[in-house]
Amino acid sequence: MKKFLSITTFLAICTGTPAIASTWDSICSKCHGIIAPSKDVLIKKFKTKEALVEAAKNSAKHKKMPFDNVKAFEKAAKELFSREVSVKSVQEDFRSFFTPLPSFPPIPKNNSLTPEKVKLGKMLYYDPRLSRSQLISCNTCHNLSIGGDDNQKTSIGHGWQAGPRNAPTTINSGFLKVQFWDGRALTLEEQAAGPLQAHVEMNATPKLIVERLKRIPEYVELFKKAFPGEKDPVTFENVTKAIAAFERTLNTPNSPFNRYLLGDDNALTSEQKEGMKLFVKYGCIACHNGPVLSDGQFHEFKWNKDLGRYNVTKNPKDKYKFRTPQLLNVAITAPYFHDGSVNSLEAAIKIMAKKELGKELSNIEAKKIKAFLESMTGEVPLEARVLPELPEKN
């Protein structure tokens, strides 16, 4: 699948006719290239713009295409066949392979995003009292000042225990289809519940957390405001909902890459644009697609003895499969892979190209792709990074 996509995307880029496509992109491309002949096919078939326009009128006459589009088609035909009009650069065509990051991810119906809930969730995210030792918070392993992770091979949790896998970033995590390397959580709410209880992480229990929070009057009031109408709002479920709500605000839509996708041609350097071309050409986009450059699927990556997805499903077909990691902010979330064994982004790029795509990248190619990935670094909202004043016990 990846090799097939690599070939087809490369052909699509290299054989595309370099012409201004303002009219074509806005009107004609809605049908042509999908259910009607592409512009390449049309140019090869018709030798002049007049012949193309005449064919369009004939198709409209027989109701094979909307009559209202004929005028636009005349303009598009002139663009396609004119030698005087400036051409559209091939580089700009790469925008169509990527999806801009929206300001917010999808919000579930059972956990609305409100200012009161986000405020509470932020405090809980930073509060170490949610851990058994009262020393570890969510921010300990997912530090919002350094990329939403801890830049460690694997995180250190309760009793100085080392976790089995590298901590993924919480930044832009609301856009992921599944959570954790093995996808054992489907939602951010489920994800938030995991580390709170994991014995190698925060090692708490729902009962312990609720008891502690209920002993803090300010928290009780905050829960009432965040979950109005509930008789007893201080629950473990609401703890995870509040944390998840806060995490859905940790988005970075103002990266150079996203600005480029939204029309700022100067947001990327020439080297980054060359890296983008290689990223598409070699098929990286087969798995790294969508708003966070992750398809949310599980792919085999046999790197060590970790069986990955198999530990969740017990399906032999899932052995050594891991969820495609997102690439937004990847330049500041080293080390890489599920075991955090690779410190260099260039090295990680070359390893993935060889193991997943069967491609030996040169140092120059890896450097260009790295530059492209660096354009995906954005800033977490300042409000989220400012440490909250946590409530004191009565």
UniProtKB/TrEMBL annotation:
Keyword set, alphabetical order: Electron transport, Heme, Iron, Metal-binding, Oxidoreductase, Peroxidase, Signal, Transport
Organism, as annotated: Desulfurobacterium thermolithotrophum (strain DSM 11699 / BSA)
GO molecular function annotations of the record: cytochrome-c peroxidase activity; electron transfer activity; heme binding; metal ion binding
Top-level taxon: Bacteria
Iron is among the record's keywords: yes
Keyword rRNA processing: no
Assigned GO CC terms: cell envelope
InterPro entries: Cyt_c-like_dom (IPR009056), Cyt_c-like_dom_sf (IPR036909), Cytochrome_c_Peroxidase/MauG (IPR051395), Di-haem_cyt_c_peroxidsae (IPR004852)
Signal peptide residues on this chain, from the entry's feature table: 1-21
SUPFAM superfamilies: Cytochrome c
Protein's UniProt name: Cytochrome-c peroxidase
Subcellular localization(s) per the UniProt record: Cell envelope
EC class of the enzyme, as a word: oxidoreductase
The protein's Enzyme Commission number: 1.11.1.5
Chief place where the protein resides: other
Cross-referenced Gene3D superfamilies: Cytochrome c-like domain
Annotated Cytochrome c domain residues: 116-247, 270-377
